[in-house]
Specification:
This protein is of the alpha/beta class. About 40% of the residues lie in helices and about 20% in strands. It has three domains: about 10-90, Orthogonal Bundle (Arc Repressor Mutant, subunit A), CATH 1.10.10.10; about 95-160 and about 270-295, D-Maltodextrin-Binding Protein, domain 2; about 165-265 and about 300-310, D-Maltodextrin-Binding Protein, domain 2 (3-Layer(aba) Sandwich), CATH 3.40.190. β1 and β2 form a beta hairpin. It is elongated, with a radius of gyration of 27 Å. It comes from Parasedimentitalea marina.
């Protein structure tokens, strides 16, 4: 048996048939006739010297050899496709695909993207609002904005300033609860999207930062940060709002932060792309715009005493 690799078309036919477990469906995917696909697989079996499929009346099954080959063939084509797409993107200076979490997309990016589009009409920007972990080598994504404390090994990673949190509410509610102590009786809103942070950045932690021993037991919980902020905007309660999610509403007076003490998380947003890709014109333009926009609201942080969460005594 020769060590020479078989033709790529034959391997492609096998990969499609192994994924679909159907010659007809595989042929449709590859836009060839079932007879042509069957011929390619037969040539692959001849090259190997043993069958890859058990052929039955209305179905096919992988042989032991087929089960051995299938994972490697699938991974090989995925890798080849990713490499090809990445190589094609090197020649593309007009399209840019960015992924960010739904809350950051809604509360931070969406109100500002008009400015980027106006400054860079030559760039076609696409946003994918998801928290799904992206593989920047395989997925059709150029830039990822992600929050947390994880490492970014193998990527270009530029961190944003650390996030802080402080109680925010509607102006009307702020009149009803003028002191930190009175907030113990206020309807509280919980942003559970950051419950993974350690040390915890939650209501009991903020109360301890204020020297108040209080552990709230009731309130409304939201899994998305933007929903929690929207509830506060509607007057449903006070939320421990994250800087990125509340800074525009604070600046424009829709929310107020009566108590000028914030707790600083150990997590932060990071601007991520493949190493070397940060110099591509559209990525560099988006990166520079992103960080310039952040700097426009840095002065709001100066209004607060910001306490690192690790400096707050545990419960």
């Amino acid at each position: 048996m020769s060590n020479r690799l078989p033709p790529l078309t034959a391997l492609r036919a096998f990969d499609a048939a192994a994924r679909h477990m159907s010659f007809a469906l595989a042929a449709a995917e590859l836009n060839v006739t079932p007879a042509a696909l069957s011929f390619q697989i037969k040539s692959l079996e001849d090259h190997l010297g043993q069958p890859l499929f058990h052929r039955k009346n209305r179905a096919v099954e992988l042989t032991e050899a087929g089960r051995t080959l299938a994972p490697g063939a699938a991974e090989g084509f995925q890798t080849l496709t990713a490499a090809w797409n990445a190589t094609r993107r090197l020649q593309d200076n007009t399209n840019l695909t960015v992924t960010a979490g739904p809350a950051l997309t809604a509360k931070w990016f969406a109100p500002r993207l008009y400015e980027f589009a106006r400054a860079h009409p030559e760039i076609d920007l696409r946003f994918s609002a998801t928290l799904r972990r992206m593989d920047l080598e395989r997925d059709d994504v150029d830039v990822a904005i992600r929050f947390g404390e994880g490492s970014d090994d193998g990527l270009y990673s530029r961190p944003v300033r650390k996030e802080w949190l402080t109680p925010v509410m509607s102006p009307e509610m702020a009149e009803q609860f003028p002191t930190p102590e009175s907030l113990m009786k206020a309807p509280l809103i919980y942003d559970d999207s950051i419950s993974f942070l350690r040390p915890s950045c939650d209501w009991p932690t903020w109360f301890r930062a204020m020297g108040i021993n209080h552990t709230p037991v009731h309130g409304t919980h939201f899994s998305n940060a933007d929903h929690a902020v929207d509830a506060a905007l509607a007057g449903a309660g006070a939320v421990l709002g994250r800087r990125a999610m509340i800074v525009k509403d604070l600046a424009e007076g829709r929310l107020v932060a009566p108590f000028k003490v914030a707790i600083e998380t150990q997590g932060r947003f990071r601007f991520l792309c493949l190493p070397g890709a940060e110099t591509r014109p559209q990525i560099a333009a988006f990166r520079d715009w992103f960080f310039a926009e952040i700097e426009k609201t840095v002065h709001i942080s100066d209004q607060f005493t910001i306490i690192p969460v690790e400096d707050i005594p545990p419960a």
